[in-house]
Write a structure and sequence with these properties.
By secondary structure, the protein is mostly helical. The protein contains two helices and no strands. Helix 1 runs antiparallel to helix 2. The chain is elongated and about 55 Å long.
Length: 73
C-alpha cells in the first residue's frame, strides 16, 4: 500500500533523472561532434571538419535541450 507522500517522492526522482540527463547531454553532443569531425579530418586529410562537426554537435545539443525543456513546461 502506498503512502500519500510516496508518489511525490517518485516524481521528484524522475525529475532529478531527467535534468541530470540534460546536464550530460550538451557536453556529450559536443564531444561526439568533435570526435566525428576529428575522424573525418584524419580520413580525408582536411583540417576544418572537426570545427564544423563541433558546431553541429553544440547546435544539436541545444536543440534537444530546448525540446526537452519545452516538453516539461
Amino acid at each position: 500500500m502506498k503512502m500519500p507522500g510516496e508518489k511525490k517522492e517518485g516524481e521528484a526522482w524522475r525529475q532529478v533523472a531527467r535534468y541530470t540527463a540534460l546536464a550530460v547531454l550538451l557536453p556529450m553532443t559536443t564531444a561526439v561532434g568533435y570526435g566525428i569531425g576529428y575522424s573525418l579530418d584524419k580520413a580525408f586529410g582536411t583540417s576544418y571538419l572537426k570545427i564544423v562537426c563541433l558546431l553541429l554537435g553544440i547546435a544539436s545539443g541545444f536543440v534537444e535541450m530546448i525540446r526537452q525543456l519545452n516538453r516539461d513546461t
